[in-house]
TrEMBL record, chain A:
The keyword Protein biosynthesis does not apply. SMART domains: AAA (SM00382). This is Phosphate ABC transporter ATP-binding protein (PhoT family). InterPro entries: AAA+_ATPase (IPR003593), ABC_transporter-like_ATP-bd (IPR003439), ABC_transporter-like_CS (IPR017871), P-loop_NTPase (IPR027417), PstB-like (IPR005670). Keywords: ATP-binding, Nucleotide-binding, Translocase, Transport. Residues 5-248 form the ABC transporter domain. It comes from Isoptericola halotolerans. GO terms for molecular function: ATP binding.
TrEMBL record, chain B:
PROSITE patterns: ABC_TM1. Belongs to the binding-protein-dependent transport system permease family. CysTW subfamily. SUPFAM superfamilies: MetI-like (SSF161098). It is a multi-pass membrane protein. PANTHER family: PHOSPHATE TRANSPORT SYSTEM PERMEASE PROTEIN PST (PTHR30425), PHOSPHATE TRANSPORT SYSTEM PERMEASE PROTEIN PSTC (PTHR30425:SF1). Part of the binding-protein-dependent transport system for phosphate; probably responsible for the translocation of the substrate across the membrane. Its main location: membrane. This is Phosphate transport system permease protein. Gene3D superfamilies: MetI-like (1.10.3720.10).
C-alpha cells in the first residue's frame, strides 16, 4: 500500500517567480522523510506539489516529474482529484469540518469517493481509523458530537484519522505539531512512528529535534536570499544529517547556528 | 497624616484611564445608535397599535358601514385572513424561485467563475437591486405578463392536476405567479450579495481540508462552503423574504386583486397582498377605514417580525456545529 516517490528535476513556479529550483530526490516507501530548513525555503511548497495541492494557488505550475511507482503525477491524463485521493495530507492547523460530527469527519473522505457503504462498514471504518490515530478511547462515547469541540491535539489526530480512513498510499504532514502543546506533540510523534509501517510519510517540520526523533531520512532545504529560489541542499539518513552532514550550511543549520 | 498624594494619584490614573476623550464620545455614539433603533421600532409598533385600536375593537357592523369592500358580518380576522394568505403565498413563491437561483449565482461568482467575469457579474447583480420597484411594476405589466400568458396556459392545461396550476389560466397574465416572478427578481440581488460574501469567507483551512481529501469542485462546495454558509444563506433568504412581504408597487401594478383563500396562482382576481391593498385603498379612506388599513399594516408588521425571529431560531439551533467555536 505504501508507495515510493521519485522526484526528478522539479522546478516550481508561481507565475514567473521560480519558488523552488531543481529538486531531485527519492522518497522510500514505509519510511518517514523529514523536510527541514529555514522559513520560506520552499519545503511546504515542495510538499504540496506531491499531491498537487499547490495548484489551488492561481498560476502555480511545475516543470519536471514526480513519479509515484513509475506514474507521473503531472502526466496529462492524471486528474489532480485522483492524486489527492491517493495522497493524504495533514495541515499545520487542525482543520476538522466544523459542521460535522466526529464520526462524519472521519467518514468525510470516504463519502467523497462516492462509495456507498453500509452502516456496519462505516462503523468499522470509523473505529479502525480512530484507533489508527490513537483517538478512539478518547472519543468513542461522543462520536456524534462536533469535531470542533475537541482539544487542538485531538483535532489534529482526528484529521489524521480522516486522512487515513481513505487508505492513501502516502501521507503528507505540513508542520502537524506546530500549533500543539508538547504532550499532544508527543502523541502525534508516537503515532507517526506507528503509521510508517503502513504508509509513506513525508513531514515538514521546523523542529529539528522532531525531525531527529521521527524520521528515517532528512532533506535539508535552503534559500540563498529573499527572491531567490529554494533548493534542496542535501538529503541523507537522519543520523548522518544530524551528526556528519556533507554540506557546511546543513551543519550550521542543524547545530542551530542560523535559521 | 494627609491622604492627598494617593488621591491625586488615583485621579491621575483615572484621567489616563480608558474612558476619556474620544473613547467616551464613541461609546455614547454607539450606545445612542443602539437605543435609537429600539426607540424607532417601539415607536412604529406603538403608532400601529394606537391607530389600529379603533378598528380592532369596532364591531363588524360598524366596520362594514365605514370600510368599502368590507363584507357583511365578518370579524376583522376573517377580513384580513385572505390578505395575509395572499401576502405569504406571493412571498414564499418568490423565495422558492429566488433562493436556489441566488445560491447558484453566488457560488458561480465565488467559486467557479474566472476572477474578471465574477467581478462583472457581481456588479450586474448589485445593479438589479438599484432598479426602482415602479420600473419592475411597469416591466411586469407590459413585458412579463404578456410573455408568460402562453406558459401559464400550458402549465394550466398539462399540469393542472397540481393544485397551484389548477383553475383557469388568466388571459392577461396579471396573476400571482407573475407577481412571484417579479418579486423573485427583486429579492435576487440581496440574497445573492449576502450569500456571495458568506461563501467568499469560507476559511481556506476548510477548503483545503476538502481538497486534500480529493474533493472535486462541487464536493468542495458541498463539504466546506455550503455548511459554513448555511446560517448566512438563511439570513439572506430572510432579508429577501422581508422585502417580498412588504413590496407594494410592483404587486399593485401587476396583480389583478381578489380576496380568496386560493391556491390558483394562474387565475386572476384571486389574491391580494397587504401592502398593495393598503396602498390601493389609502387615498380614498377616511375615519375608521384608515384605522382598518393601519390594523392590516400591524398584521404585516407582526408577520415580518415573526419571520425574522423564526430565522434567528433556525440559525441558533445548530450553533454547536456552526464553526463559530
Amino acid at each position: 500500500m505504501a508507495q515510493r516517490i521519485d522526484v526528478k528535476d522539479l522546478n516550481i513556479y508561481y507565475g514567473d517567480f521560480l519558488a523552488v529550483q531543481d529538486i531531485t530526490m527519492t522518497i522510500e516507501p514505509k519510511s518517514v522523510t523529514a523536510l527541514i530548513g529555514p522559513s520560506g525555503c520552499g519545503k511546504s511548497t515542495f510538499l504540496r506539489t506531491l499531491n498537487r495541492m499547490h495548484e489551488v494557488i492561481p498560476n502555480a505550475r511545475v516543470e519536471g516529474t514526480v513519479e509515484m511507482e513509475g506514474v507521473d503525477l503531472y502526466g496529462s491524463d492524471v486528474d489532480p482529484v485522483a492524486v489527492r485521493r491517493n495522497v493524504g495530507m495533514v495541515f499545520q492547523r487542525p482543520n476538522p469540518f466544523p459542521t460535522m460530527s466526529i464520526r462524519d469527519n472521519v467518514l468525510a473522505g470516504v463519502k467523497l469517493n462516492n462509495k456507498r457503504i453500509s452502516k456496519a462498514d462505516a462503523d468499522d471504518m470509523v473505529e479502525s481509523s480512530l484507533h489508527g490515530a490513537n483517538l478512539w478511547n478518547e472519543v468513542k462515547d461522543r462520536l456524534e458530537k462536533p469535531g470542533s469541540g475537541l482539544s487542538g491535539g485531538q483535532q489534529q489526530r482526528l484529521c489524521i484519522a480522516r486522512a487515513i480512513a481513505v487508505k492513501p498510499q502516502v501521507l503528507l504532514m505540513d508542520e502537524p505539531c506546530s500549533a500543539l502543546d508538547p504532550i499532544s506533540t508527543i502523541a502525534i510523534e508516537d503515532l507517526i512512528g506507528e503509521l510508517k509501517s503502513e504508509y509513506t510519510i513525508v513531514i515538514v517540520t521546523h523542529n529539528m529535534q522532531q525531525a531527529a526523533r521521527v524520521s528515517d531520512r532528512t532533506a535539508f532545504f535552503n534559500i540563498a536570499g529573499t527572491g531567490k529560489p529554494g533548493k534542496l541542499i542535501e538529503m541523507d539518513e537522519t543520523s548522518t544529517i544530524f551528526s556528519s552532514p556533507s554540506e557546511k550550511s546543513t551543519e550550521d543549520y542543524v547545530s542551530g547556528r542560523f535559521g | 497624616m494627609t491622604d492627598s498624594p494617593p488621591r491625586a494619584r488615583a485621579r491621575a490614573t483615572r484621567r489616563r484611564g480608558s474612558d476619556r476623550g474620544f473613547n467616551r464620545v464613541f461609546r455614547w455614539i454607539a450606545v445612542g445608535s443602539g437605543v435609537l433603533i429600539l426607540a424607532v421600532l417601539a415607536a412604529v409598533a406603538l403608532f400601529l397599535l394606537w391607530q389600529a385600536w379603533p378598528a380592532l375593537t369596532a364591531g363588524s357592523d360598524e366596520l362594514a358601514t365605514a370600510v368599502p369592500r368590507y363584507p357583511e358580518d365578518t370579524s376583522f380576522v376573517a377580513y384580513v385572513g385572505p390578505l395575509v394568505f395572499g401576502t405569504l403565498l406571493a412571498a414564499i413563491l418568490a423565495l422558492a424561485i429566488a433562493t436556489p437561483l441566488a445560491i447558484g449565482i453566488a457560488l458561480f461568482i465565488s467559486h467557479y467563475a474566472p476572477r474578471r467575469l465574477s467581478q462583472v457579474l457581481g456588479y450586474l447583480v448589485d445593479l438589479l437591486a438599484a432598479v426602482p420597484s415602479v420600473i419592475y411594476g411597469l416591466w411586469g405589466f407590459f413585458v412579463l405578463a404578456p410573455f408568460v400568458v402562453p406558459i401559464w396556459s400550458w402549465l394550466n392545461e398539462y399540469l393542472g392536476w397540481f393544485p397551484l396550476f389548477a383553475g383557469e389560466a388568466s388571459p392577461t397574465g396579471r396573476v400571482l405567479a407573475t407577481v412571484a416572478i417579479v418579486l423573485a427578481v427583486m429579492i435576487l440581488p440581496i440574497i445573492t450579495a449576502v450569500s456571495r460574501e458568506v461563501f467568499l469567507q469560507t476559511p481556506k483551512l476548510h477548503e483545503e481540508a476538502a481538497l486534500a481529501l480529493g474533493a472535486t469542485r462541487w464536493e468542495l462546495v458541498r463539504t466546506a462552503v455550503l455548511p459554513f454558509g448555511r446560517s448566512g444563506i438563511i439570513s439572506a433568504a430572510m432579508l429577501g423574504l422581508g422585502r417580498a412581504l412588504g413590496e407594494t408597487m410592483a404587486v399593485l401594478m401587476i396583480l389583478s386583486p381578489g380576496f380568496l383563500y386560493s391556491f390558483h396562482i394562474l387565475d386572476s382576481a384571486q389574491h391580494q397582498t397587504i401592502a398593495a391593498y393598503i396602498a390601493l385603498d389609502f387615498p380614498e379612506a377616511s375615519g375608521l377605514a384608515v384605522n382598518t388599513l393601519i390594523a392590516t399594516g400591524l398584521v404585516l408588521f407582526v408577520i415580518t417580525l415573526a419571520v425574522n425571529m423564526g430565522a434567528r431560531a433556525i440559525v441558533a439551533r445548530r450553533k454547536e456545529f456552526s464553526g463559530a467555536n
